[in-house]
Amino acid sequence: MPTLRFGVNYTPRHGWFHAWHDFDPARARADLDQIAGLGLDHVRIFHLWPLLQPNRTLIRTSAVDQLARLVDLAAEAGLDVLVDGVQGHLSSFDFYPEWTRSWHHRNVFTDPDAIAAQADLLRTLGRALSGRPNLIGLQLGNELNNLIEHNPATAAEVDHYLDTLLAAARDGLGEGTGLVTHSAYDAAWYGDDHPFTPEASARKGDVTTVHPWVFSGGCASLYGPRSPQVLHLAEYGTELAKAYAEDPARPVWVQETGAPEPHIPAADAPHFARETILNASGCTGLWGVTWWCSHDVDRSLADFPELEYTLGLFDAQGHPKPIAEAVAATVAELRSGSRLPEPRDTALVLDCTPSTRSVSGPGGAYFEEWMRLRQEGVRPAVVLAERAGDESHLEARGIKELIQVPRR
Q1: Quick check: 183 and 143 in contact, CB under 8 A?
Q2: Which residue spans within 126-201 are E strands per DSSP?
Q3: pLDDT at residue 341 above 90?
Q4: Among 303, 335, 367, where does a domain finish?
Q5: Is 262 in the same domain as 170?
Q6: Could you count the other beta carbons within 10 Å of the beta carbon of residue 143?
Q7: Which of 10, 161, 245, 258 makes an SS bond possible with 250, Cβ 3.0 to 4.6 Å?
Q8: How confident is the model at residue 340 (pLDDT cuts 50, 70, 90)?
């Protein structure tokens, strides 16, 4: 069984991601040492697209060098690294280069020149980072589907975009060197007719990434911060992702989950973190869990949604919060080998179309039936209706019993 990976999404303590404007290796190394001190084994890091590529045909060597330097600092701290490339969205802010905006507006998903420029950036980053032993791989960008609101695209256009950029990232890294993947927020799984599809998330790239946030679909507000629905959300997201994969052995990475106030009150955060990690770790095929995020946003920075100021394992002064202690203790327990995932031989059949995908999200009939079964002690897998009669598929996944969602 592959060793589970546990890490955190790195948010610089000083200056948030604006720290890239005046990158300070000493401060970065101090942050990374704190992260490693929790017993975590990796970080996910983000540069800013406008700083990397301020002109469509200009990729700044100094910015690429900064990124490579941060990867090396992580290695010195004993941490592996996943690098996100085209950073157009982070924590409710969008970062577009000026050549995509206003008078120069280009749809980043459909304009051929914009796609080619992003491919050049990913190819350049891959070549600059390839060969570093602590590099996990290269991801296209953070939750790129957040940019759909201002860059409308069809599912077919998104698929072309993802295929083009994944190929460029692989070309940059080289064959057999690190993972190449992409990420999307939960609309890809629950959003009716959303152009980033579950199939794209579960079949493109080397690993499926899920970002099961408790505010997505109003999960925490619907059911409560200590509810089974909230505590099993990352587990559910992992099983849902496995259903859409063509390869039963394809790993799933819980790449973002966190305890945002007020959805998860601070007093409940340690319990939430422990239960979320333990429940997700009960899924076979899990690559690992990466918490969001390392450090709180400092309140001297204005205009963030309130929840963004409270998501760190460390506060803005660099002190570990109770949730950090809970994460560290849970990770240490799992690494002891005392808990091992068990195969799931019972599956709940998911019957939906792209226009009714929301049945699988919080509040939906499918979601609620899965959670009801889970509370009764069943550990259900998810099987798509079109595969319910595919004996070879069921056998490959170890599924022996199928349950239908009762009609309401």
Answers
A1: yes
A2: 135-139, 179-181
A3: no
A4: 335
A5: yes
A6: 23
A7: 245
A8: confident
Confidence band for 149, pLDDT divided at 50, 70 and 90: very high
Closest to 258 measured CA to CA, from 66, 11, 3, 2: 11
| Inside any domain, residue 340 | no
Q: Is 143 helix (H, G, I), strand (E, B) or coil?
A: coil
Is residue 15 in a domain? yes
pTM of the model as a whole: 0.97
Residue 307 near residue 265, CB atoms below 8 Å: no
**Structural domain containing residue 179:** 5-335
Angle between helices 233-244 and 269-280 (to 10 degrees): 30
231 to each of 32, 271, 279, how far by Cα in Å? 28, 9, 8
Same domain for 242 and 274: yes
Q: Is the pLDDT of residue 1 over 70?
A: no
Is 157 exposed, middle or buried, given 0-12, 13-18 or 19+ CB atoms closer than 10 A?
Answer: middle
Residue 395: is it exposed, middle or buried by C-beta count within 10 angstroms (0-12/13-18/19+)? exposed
On whether the CB atoms of residues 114 and 140 are closer than 8 A, the answer is no
Residues 315 and 396 both lie in one domain: no
Question: Structurally, how many domains does the chain consist of?
Answer: 2
Residue 80: phi, psi to the nearest 5? -85, 165
Which of 335, 354, 376 finishes a domain?
Answer: 335
Residue type at 332?
A: A
Encoded tokens for 13: 């303590």
Report the alpha-carbon distance of residue 263 to residue 281 in Å, rounded: 23
